[in-house]
Amino acid sequence: MTSETSGAWQFTDSRGQLASAADRPTRIAAYLQAGASLWDHGLRPHGIFGSHHDGPAPDPAKCGSLPLDGLTYFGAGASLDPDGILASGADLLVAVTYGGGAVYGMEPDAVKHLEEQIPVVVIDVGQSRSLADVREAFGALAHSLGGAEPPESAYQLADAQAKLKSLAGPAAPPLLALSPASGTEVHLARPHTWPDLRALTALGVPLLSPPPEGGANWATVDWPTAAALGPRLVLADVRANAALLDPALLGDGVRILPWNPELPASATSHTLFYTGITQALQG
Where along the chain do its domains lie? Predict the structure, then answer.
């Protein structure tokens, strides 16, 4: 929810917390996924930061079409300095959460320190939100900041969804989403915990579920166990923290598709995601 009365800016984030400023913020420090989402809405962030999984340079896989040249990178994990964000002149922090309101990739003390100085907006991208929910939340935030996607992007998204739905169904080859851990182990995604994977399921794309043992979002197994599930299409995590995938570990005839589990939240990005799956099913 936004309000822009007499030049003031306000936005209520996914935590139900109101962020406000005397003027609309223009120097935005954003988590990588958030910065890529804002860019798709015509807003170039002032700087970006990563999570504890990221390194000394931004992960291009998480950044979508956001140009990285000349963009300030504030670091990630233990190297992220909140005072560096403030010293840069940032007047808004945009972060994400996977539930419970905890800011992903940033220590609670750092968040508290920043909230005492500048507005902080946190968008929930976790399993309690649908892909459309996440997209709409970032769209509302971008609108409050003066940004918007091209008008045709909504029609392109609807068209991409319709094309994928026409090819999906029980006869479609089963798909497995995973993140390579090493040459011996792999993290298999639980489809119901990921908004983008749930969106595929809703359109009729059959997704394989890993064994029930393991974490909430992933089950870590050996490669023979993954291959035994019989995937024909594999969505493989291409973020920098994932290991390189040897397709031979999954057997013959398996098609590998790149997957960014932290998709930018925009109609533009989601259209590309659906289109890639559609092309794979056609192939």
Answer: 2-144, 152-282
The pLDDT tens digits of the residues spanning 18-56 come to 999 999 999 999 999 999 999 999 999 999 999 999 989
CA–CA separation, 166 and 15 (whole Å): 37
CATH superfamily of 152-282: Nitrogenase molybdenum iron protein domain (3.40.50.1980)
pLDDT at 6: 45
Of 6 and 34, the one with more pLDDT: 34
| Structure token digits, residue 5 | 């009365």
* pLDDT-derived band at 5, boundaries 50, 70, 90: very low
**Mean pLDDT, all residues of the chain:** 94
Residue 147 one-letter amino acid: G
pLDDT value at residue 3: 46
**Measured CA distances, 116 to 15, 46, 120, 225, 248 (Å):** 17, 20, 9, 49, 52
User: What's the confidence (pLDDT) of residue 4?
Assistant: 45
Distance between CA atoms of residues 270 and 174, nearest Å: 20
CATH topology of domain 2-144: Rossmann fold (3.40.50)
